[in-house]
Amino acid sequence: MKRGILILLLILFAAACGEEEPEAEPTLSGPTALPASPTIDPVSLAQEGSSIRDPGVGEMGVSNPTQAALAAEGEPENPIGTVTPQPTEAELPVLISASDGLVLRGTFYAAAVRPAPGVLLLHQRGSDRSSWDVLAQRLQALNYAVLAIDLRGYGETGGAEDWTLAPGDVRATLQQLATLSGVSPERIVVIGASVGANLGLNACADYSGCMAAVLLSPGLDYRGITTAEAVARLGFRPMLIAAGENDRNNPADSVTLDGSAAGDHQLVIYPENAHGTALFDVRPELLDLIVNWLSVRVAPPVPVLTPVPPT
């Protein structure tokens, strides 16, 4: 009996020793990387100063130093990219990096039919890009791609007024316009007022893709930016000049520049004493003149109408 009990205990002990330990739950060793979510880093626009639109030609623009233009410590000063326009976006903000890091701010009016001629609008001293709003929208409606910028020292660009750096700013802007999506780089037009006309004429004369220039109240010398040699460099490309009577150096300077033109040129002198884009206020038909003159010499693309099948 005792022997039977002993044998039974031995059998039970052997069975207990043969059981396997349960497997441990799997664990993660080390950190787990999750894919980053796409984010947008918006650039807040500087507010315009109260005197930006002061009609006084001698007034400086409000200084709004642009911190975004400065590279962070240890970071390279790379040019700031511009937004690529999409077919459904009619107006887009544009940022252009100047040679000293200042960010030039502008508005791009995209054309519905592409590729389209590009038009650069340059305001006069004491103004900003909003002075071109009506003309920009008129040109856009005709399928021109339009870029209006605030020169340094003015509008949302801010910074300090500096006419020694302004020519380089305009050259950089003209090159940027030529690279925007939907713009024909060999069909560029520059339209400027007062010192903006001087800047635009020089930039157009030095860019082979610039086909025509429209100048409102240009001068032979504004702030050290001269135009006589620029007209010679423009060659046979078309030029339209509009000016008012008894406007300081005008119409004498405009007459001189028109007389130096080698190609297709037109001079319009209005009897009113108005300067630059102020001519639009006293002579609204000037808008029609510019649009019609331009459409003949640098024609915009014509929309292709899809025929409707007969029902």
Q: What does it look like?
A:
The chain has 311 residues and is an alpha/beta fold. It has a domain at 90-297: Rossmann fold (3-Layer(aba) Sandwich). Helix content is 27%, strand content 19%. It has an 8-stranded mixed beta sheet, with helices on both faces. α3 crosses α4 and α4 (195-205) packs parallel to α5. The N and C termini lie far apart (109 Å). Residues 1-85 have low confidence and may be disordered.
TL;DR?
The protein is of the alpha/beta class and 311 residues long.
The topology string of helices and strands comes to: HEEEHEHEHEEEHEHEHH
State the fourth-level CATH superfamily of the domain at 90-297. Answer: Alpha/Beta hydrolase fold, catalytic domain
**Secondary-structure-derived class:** alpha/beta
Strand order of the largest sheet: 1-2-4-3-5-6-9-10
Helices and strands, with pairings:
Elements lengths: L1 H16 L73 E7 L5 E7 L6 E7 L10 H9 L3 E5 L16 H14 L3 E11 L1 H11 L4 E7 L4 E2 L2 E2 L1 H7 L4 E6 L7 H9 L4 E6 L8 H4 L2 H13 L14
Parallel strand pairs: 3-4, 3-5, 5-6, 6-9, 9-10
Antiparallel strand pairs: 1-2, 2-4, 7-8
